[in-house]
Design brief:
Helices cover 13% and strands 43% of the residues. By secondary structure, it is mainly beta. The strands form three sheets. Strands 2-3-5-7-8-9-14-16 form an eight-stranded antiparallel barrel. A three-stranded antiparallel β-sheet has the order 1-12-13. The chain has a two-stranded antiparallel ribbon with strand order 10-11.
Length: 282
């Protein structure tokens, strides 16, 4: 069973379908390090390509066919991140990645990562669900809630930012592929900035907040999470309940994306052409 499980989950990843776009984060305060490039003033980070992350997870595999092993048709429910027995230190965004190397001109982090003097991003999930198809686990649904902790609000108070919702999933050898969108924006504020305005994404020659893009363009920002897993541990088996319990430690990164303006324009022209053809046919 351990050999089968290791082969199935040695590398687990969440991946979207769109090309990543740059983002900046506005927490409404200057926490230092802003002598470098900023996205939109000294309360923001610079433009970033992705966010690195670490977290812990626990999963319950239901032995549907009762054969005592992980086999085709068995189902899985995974929980993880902050609030499931782990600390912020082990379940958080560890770095804001700009992809340009570690130079003095790198985009600012606005003091990110110090839980004693600035702000930290974290997340949790409780309902990632799927099944084993004989080769790998195929996750089909689930939500990940993203959180911000800020020294001004007190690190004991979490601010809900948004939820990433898995809409579809596929996999290749050693790689899980999830597609989804962002929604369920928070209603609190951080240093006077609405939670829904904290994350901003590049759009053409300008930028939009995640919620502004969802409202203006009538579609949500998409996400991609690449996740690697250390060798997982089977921490328990309940033969009577028909369940196998698994824990794991993970690291990876998350990226965000919106359709390019040119893509939207081309699509619009295509639809106009189709409409014209329909009229001619009529």
């Amino acid at each position: 069973m351990n050999k089968l499980f290791t082969a199935a989950l040695a590398s687990l990843a969440f991946v979207g379908t769109a090309t990543a776009d740059q983002i900046y984060i506005d927490v409404g305060a200057d926490y230092g390090g802003n002598t470098y490039a900023q996205g939109n003033g000294n309360t923001t980070t610079g433009w970033k390509n992705s966010l690195k992350l670490v977290f812990e997870s626990n999963s319950t595999v239901t032995d549907v066919d009762g054969d005592g092993t992980i086999s085709a048709g068995d189902t899985i429910v995974s929980t993880g991140g902050l609030g499931f027995g782990g600390t912020i230190a082990n379940n958080k965004v560890t770095a804001l990645i700009d992809g340009e190397g570690l130079l003095a001109t790198d985009p600012s982090d606005n003091g990110y990562g110090s839980i004693s003097s600035s702000w930290v991003l974290s997340f949790r999930f409780s309902d990632l669900m799927g099944s084993f198809d004989g080769t790998d686990f195929n996750y089909t649904s689930g939500n990940i809630d993203w959180l911000l902790f800020d020294i001004t609000n007190g690190f004991g108070t979490e601010v809900h930012l948004f939820t990433t919702s898995i809409q579809s999933h596929s996999y290749t050898t050693g790689n899980q592929v999830f597609n989804g969108e962002i929604g369920n924006f928070g209603t609190d504020t951080v240093n006077g900035v609405a939670a829904s305005d904290i994350f901003n994404i590049a759009y053409g020659n300008s930028s939009m907040t995640f919620e502004e893009y969802a409202t203006t363009m009538s579609q949500n920002v998409r996400f991609r999470i690449d996740q690697n897993t250390d060798q997982p541990n089977v921490v328990g088996v309940d033969a009577q309940a028909g369940e196998i319990y698994i824990s794991g430690k993970h690291d990876g990164s998350i990226e965000f994306a919106v359709p390019e303006p040119a893509t939207i324009a081309i699509l619009g022209l295509g639809l106009l052409g189709f409409a014209g053809a329909s009229r001619r046919k009529s």
